Amino acid sequence: MENQVLTPHVYWAQRHRELYLRVELSDVQNPAISITENVLHFKAQGHGAKGDNVYEFHLEFLDLVKPEPVYKLTQRQVNITVQKKVSQWWERLTKQEKRPLFLAPDFDRWLDESDAEMELRAKEEERLNKLRLESQGSPETLTSLKKGYLFMYNFVQFLGFSWIFVNMTVRFFILGKESFYDTFHTMADMMYFCQMLSAVETINAAIGVTQSPVMPSLIQLLGRNFILFIIFGTVEEMQNKAVVFFVFYIWSTVEIFRYPFYMLSCIDMNWKVLTWLRYTVWIPAYPLGCLAEAVSVIQSIPVFNETGRFSFTLPYPVKIKVRFSFFLQIYLIILFLGLYVNIRHLYKQRRRHFGQKKKKIH
């Protein structure tokens, strides 16, 4: 006996761009669903209101739709989505005014036109926000990129200053005091690289990539580069002096603890020994470094006076010769003021990391 062809219960809802149909059939397999000449054809074997049978229906839509329906089978029903050709609100589903007996509104998905418009606007706004985030990068992605960038910067600086520190140490143990006098010629290229790259720290602080204050970073950048490029770099007589060894060695001693501390901070690691060294080594190193820089400036003053380098004469009618040594004497004052600013900044950082709150005794 052939199975009787029956019509299933069909529920529908709409949005401006889509139609949703829910066919009440369970245990459906391989349904025949198609759209030809704007008519939806459905035929499937399944369990419906009349038991296991072949169920079939045809719906001619009110307006044009795209001929590619999308359906999804569940254990209890068949969900069909049909795209409208024109985004608009329909007053009914079918071309015929009288609603077919098997068709009813799907109140689980039903919205009136104003609610559907609000939903459409919300979806469009969500889509635009997603596109904007994709073009700008999500906050998590930007944070990861920033951490990766800072990690690599600190890693490169650590390698540079470690190379200087290790080479100077080895040379001192092998050559003794003789290594003092050719430090510049053996270490200058790497020191030039590291000190020029350190400008990145000041830029990072200025544009907000890091939370460090700009002034201490700028003072250290300008002070070290003045000593390196002007005092040592332009005066050949200074390049053979022992003070170069002490300046370079103290700079690198500070940095071989500072940069790995920042590296570990980028990956949210805290090594207590390294943290203690980072906030303690500066206590003797910064005053000694400032003293070594001051000695190099004082030793360079006679050389600049003798060579007249960077000196100039004021124009007529003054015609006074201004020696560069005059600016060096002013710089000595600025040097110790800068030391005060940096020590004050580092002391606050150390107290913030190691300062202990007093416990009240009851």
Q: Which terms summarize this structure?
A:
362 residues, alpha+beta, five-stranded mixed beta sheet, four-stranded mixed beta sheet, 9 helices, 11 strands, 15% strand
- Overall geometry: elongated
What count of helical segments does DSSP give?
9
Distance between the termini: 95 Å
In this structure, how is the largest beta sheet organized? Answer: 5 strands, mixed
| Series of secondary-structure elements, N-terminal to C-terminal | EEEEEEEEEHHHHHHHHEEH
Number of strands: 11
> Percent helix among the residues?
40-55%
Rg calc: 40 Å
Alpha-beta classification:
alpha+beta
Low-confidence stretches: 357-362
Largest beta sheet: what is the strand line-up? 7-8-3-2-9
The averaged pLDDT comes out at 89
Strand content: 15-25%
Word description of this protein:
By secondary structure, the chain is of the alpha+beta class. It is 53% helix and 15% strand. The chain has nine helices and eleven strands. It has helices spanning 113-136, 139-175, 183-197, 199-207, 214-232, 243-266, 272-278, 282-307, 324-354, and strands spanning 5-6, 10-14, 18-23, 32-36, 39-48, 51-60, 70-73, 78-83, 103-105, 312-313, 321-322. The strands form three sheets. A five-stranded mixed β-sheet has the order 7-8-3-2-9, with no helix packed on it. Strands 1-6-5-4 form a four-stranded mixed β-sheet, with no helix packed on it. Strands 10-11 form a two-stranded antiparallel ribbon. A hairpin with a 3-residue loop joins strand 2 (10-14) and strand 3. Helix 2 (139-175) runs antiparallel to helix 6 (243-266), helix 4 (199-207) packs antiparallel against helix 5 and helix 6 (243-266) packs across helix 7.
